[in-house]
User: What shape does this take?
Amino acid sequence: MIGLGRFGRSLAGELLRGGHEVMGIDLDERLVQAASGELTVVVQADATDETVLRQLGVADVQHAVVAIGDAVQASILATAALSDLGVPDIWGKAQTEQHARILDRVGAHHVVFPERDMGVRVAHRVTGRMLEFVKIDEDFALIETPVPQRFADRTLIESGIRQEFNVNVVGVQAPDEGFTHAQPDTRLVEGSVLLVAGQVRAVERFAAES
Ligand code: ATP
Assistant: This one.
């Protein structure tokens, strides 16, 4: 994990919880100290220096994430260094489309836009009844939304939701219970929460139904 700012640390923490070993690298001594008890190895170093990265054994890692956003030049140089070292799976964090294009050119295999993606996600939650919105593809999303009143006390098959809205209900959470797979005979009750997949406009139309 190159860059131990808010994004890098949060991502590193989740990887650790998933049982992975994580080496963190940052220029900032305070951040290195703060993360030193948390990650497998934490090193204060300049990640744009390929020789330093090689000495740290970075050529042998399976995945690398360049979690540097603001310092665009450092993000590009660190990505290029990882690519030259032959790291097989390099992830970059971009602030703009231009930045993403350059990361791609210098060897990033995947580029994410956390601020932009979170903005899209929150916009759907702010304006609709959605509890969650996850864009899967340019025009496909998975949302979490309360069951519209008029479908309460019907089974999923009786509700006709798929035919009317062209969406798929994939999970259902009854009040005070956990999510279960949606089955044709799953009963919807007032207060149920649905996980619904479909084209963006279709899931938006469904979530606007009350
Ligand atoms: P976040 O939003 O995740 O908190 P940020 O936008 O505050 O990040 P960035 O400028 O994106 O900060 O940098 C993230 C981290 O990357 C910082 O902690 C910074 O010290 C570190 N960093 C920047 N340049 C280098 C470099 N050349 N080598 C190692 N770490 C670096």
Q: What stands out?
A: The longest strand covers residues 140-146. The chain has a mean pLDDT of 95. The pocket of adenosine-5'-triphosphate is lined by residues 2-8, 25-28, 31, 46-48, 67-71, 74 (CB under 6 Å).
